[in-house]
Write a structure and sequence with these properties.
Elements: E1 2-7, E2 13-19, E3 22-29, H1 35-49, E4 59-65, H2 69-86, E5 90-94, H3 95-100, E6 109-117, E7 120-131, E8 134-147, H4 148-158, E9 162-165, H5 168-179, E10 184-186, H6 196-208, H7 227-241
Length: about 240
């Protein structure tokens, strides 16, 4: 099983190539460039470095959202174009799930947190449960868009240590410190942002479970309306009440 994984759902752009249990290559950039400038050149670079024939891959994994509207569109368009050109299926990985999967084996509560603006975060709650000689990845709260106060309250309700990660953490660090009533930690730099390798690793499991879609049917999951759509709806509602 060999696949390409893409993640451009946030500030980080990432491309990875995985084969069975091996990460063959990963290219991650967290810098001030648009994903349209970086994603395909990154794929070209690691394909060249690993002598990858794209025709030999089995699927394309992509972080399907939520996240940056522009970033998601770029990632989805790239994945869809590759899938259609190569006649390969798409494995859609929820962005927040992929972010949490970086902390494989952690039995504490895992709380990924992406800044969604307007006082909200894209988030969810997860943990790993020991199952025989391995671990089972379990969702406590599916990915959602909620206020920082609401997700912290849910963390407190779990009653156990919580690990926070994601680009929402530095934005709301003081809120977290003020409101958390259970032990918590912030994940370190090497595992606190989106990684295409984590998307790919989770996609491997999805592929075994048959969770693939035809490239023509793939679409990103924005989870909520874009700012432009929200403002238009607000104008329409205001006009309707006059």
């Amino acid at each position: 099983m060999k696949l390409i994984a893409l993640d451009s759902s946030g500030l980080v752009a990432g491309v990875a190539v995985l084969e069975d249990f091996n990460l063959l290559a990963e290219y991650t950039v967290n810098y001030k460039k648009t994903h349209s400038q970086t994603l395909l050149p990154m794929l070209d670079e690691i394909a060249g470095m690993t002598e990858l024939d794209l025709k030999t891959i089995d699927a394309i994994a992509v972080a399907k959202g939520p996240g940056s509207f522009t970033g998601l569109r770029i990632g989805s368009a790239t994945a869809k174009g590759l899938g259609l050109a190569l006649d390969k299926p798409i494995i859609e990985v929820p962005t927040v799930d992929g972010l949490a999967y970086q902390l494989f084996g952690v039995q504490d509560t895992i709380c990924p947190m992406m800044d969604a603006r307007r006082g909200q975060v894209y988030t969810g709650l997860y943990h790993f449960v020991k199952a025989g000689e391995g671990y089972c990845f379990e969702t406590i709260l599916p990915q959602c868009a909620v206020s920082i106060e609401e997700i912290i309250e849910k963390c407190n309700e779990q009653g156990q240590k919580t690990i926070f990660l994601g680009d929402g953490v530095p934005v709301y660090a003081e809120k977290i410190k003020d409101l958390m009533r259970v032990p918590y930690e912030f994940a370190p730099a090497h595992c606190n942002r989106q990684r295409a390798a984590a998307v790919g690793a989770l996609a491997m499991q999805y592929y075994k479970e048959g969770k693939v879609v035809d490239a023509a049917k793939h679409a990103p999951d924005y989870l909520r309306l874009s700012q432009a759509e929200r403002e238009r709806r607000e104008r329409e509602q205001a006009h309707g009440t006059n």
